[in-house]
Structures are given as C-alpha cells and as structure tokens.
Amino acid sequence: MPVERLLPNSEATDLLALTREIACAELAPRAAGNEAAEKFPRDAFRLLGEAGFLGLPYYEEHGGGAQPYEVYLQVLEELSSAWMTVGVGLSVHTMSCYPLANFGSAEQRSRWLPGMIGGELLGAYALSEPHAGSDAAALNTRAVRQDDSYAVNGAKAWITHGGIADFYTLMARTSDDGPLGISCLLVDAATPGLSAGPPEHKMGLTGSPTTPLYFEDARVPAERLVGSEGQGLKIALSALDSGRLGIAACAVGLAQAALDLAVDYAKKRQQFGRPIIEFQGLEFLLADMAAAVHSARATYLDGARRRDAGLPFGQQASVAKLVATDAAMKVTTDAVQVLGGAGYTRDFPAERYMREAKVLQIFEGTNQIQRMLIARHLAKP
User: What is the pTM for the complete model shown?
Assistant: First the structure.
C-alpha cells in the first residue's frame, strides 16, 4: 500500500503520484538486474530529468521545480523504495547543484544552473580524499591561480557518479590557511587533466559507480570559482546539512521497502497451519520495524520543515541522518530474519536491501560524526 502522506497542496499530491508511477513502472522492475550486473541506469536519470525531478528544490527562473524540501524529500523516499541507486543518485545530484544555487553569483547561476538542473546533466560532489574523510578540512587537492584559471592537482576518493558525471562540484585548497584555505570550483567533466579511476568493488549499491578522481594539472577557468576563495569549507558543510536530509529520506525509503516485503511475506508464508504473521514473535518484530520507519520519517520531515521555514536545521539534519540510517540497517536486517532462509537468497530483495543499508550509516558523514555534531549543538549556550 502507498504510504499515507500529509502533503501541503494538490500540486505536491500530484507530484508524489507521478513519482510512484515512475518508481513502480520504470524503476522497480529493473533494480535487481542492474544491481547484479553493476550497471548504472543513466537512462533512468534522463527520464527523471524529462519529468523535472533533477531540479525539484531549485528556482523556477532557472528551470527548477521550486518545491519545498518537505516535498522533494518525500519524492526521494518514494524513488529509494523502488531503487536505492536512483534515490541516492538524485540526492547526490541535488547536493552537487547546491553550492552554485546558494553561493554563486547571479551571472554564474544564470549561465550554468539551468543546464545543471534542466534534466540532461548529472552532477557529482568531490570533497573526500584518501586521507581526508571525516576530517574534511585536511584535504590536500590543490588549486593554484595562474592568470585566468586554476591549475588543479590531487586526488579525490569515494566519488558517487565518478567517471559518469557531467560536472563535479570540487573542494580544493587554494592556500595553506587551514580550514580557511579551501575553495569551491565547478568543474566540467570534460576538463583535460581530469580522470576517474576504476569503480570500487562494493557490497551494495553496485549499480552506482563510486570511484577516485585524479587531477593532473587540470585547468579550471577562474570564472568557475563559486563564492570567494577560502569560502569552500563553509559551502561544503552547508551543502552537507541539506544532503544529510536527502540521505535520511533515502534510508526511510529503503526501510519502507523492507517492511513492505516482510509484511507481505509474513501474510503469505504458512507454518503450523496458519500465516506466520499471526505468531506473536513475528507480530512484535514487524511492529518494531513499522515504528522505526514512522519515527525516522518524522525526523527528516521535521528537519525539512525547519529548512523550508528559514530556521536553523543543522542539528535536525544530523538527528535525521543518524536515526533514519540506523533504522534502515535494523529494519532491513530484521526483514531478512522474517523471511528466514529465503531472505538470505537472491530470490527476494531482502538481502540486497540489507547490503545497501550499511553504506547509509557511513557516507555524508558517518553516524559517529553525526553524534559529535549533535553533541556540539547541545553544548552551545
């Protein structure tokens, strides 16, 4: 059954109905096959682009959907219920557009943002490095100003859409002034000197390529500097607050899919002459799974509504990311348990859901980092 949602208006209701239609007809039937083949569904993103999904929370004047985050995140949830690679991919693309949309000049936004959110292009976010993951301020990739361009040298790690993106939102060091020496550049994927390494061999989200990126004297025009020099870390962390809400929504979508599968199986599976859902041990397990999904959904909606109201939402984003991704890990694990031996086979998607859930606790800031951020908010006057 579709999730019952409290949406702000009829336009949002129609958008979610369209999302479910695309998710059920175009995405869900392909998910298992593409993930098994480790094949990225670039055509699915073109389809979403044609439907206007690649710019949902951005300005209408630049071709966006002007949707509140409360609505955009519920679209992400629905897509993730059908296929996590697509849900996470849309979240990453949206975050990759955020720096230009919120920190770029009016001329930059008019020039590049329509193409980025218009449906044809796909973005990637290049912050992490081999030795700078949770400690983002320790990044070493260098961008040295030379006349009207930056010469970029270094390596990035764990880049979703690496090698297939059309543009990269890059954080690079422009001075040795610690956290204040990082700047943000919008890099065309066709830039000479930019290359992607081979995809990582992952336990889940195998349809989504994750690669290192290498910059060897890659020349990026100075006009592609977003914000001012030294503002990059501030931009990156601001983007991550919104991105964490996106990952929380993806996690809830995955957990909802696992819950739906477990309930359907428990209704049909007979043991001792009756459906196993009638046994209290399974009833309570399913009830806890449902409670976890509902609670996690409430956390990301709380953060989204604060964001839409123009209120601080960083703490709520960390809470949502922590609660939702931990819930996804537990719910998908319990779904395997409900299915028993069948859950451990690839005849059902439960084992894939469980493998996909794990990375949600890691990227966009590990859940240990989220606990640190929440504690810092609590310690403020």
Answer: 0.96
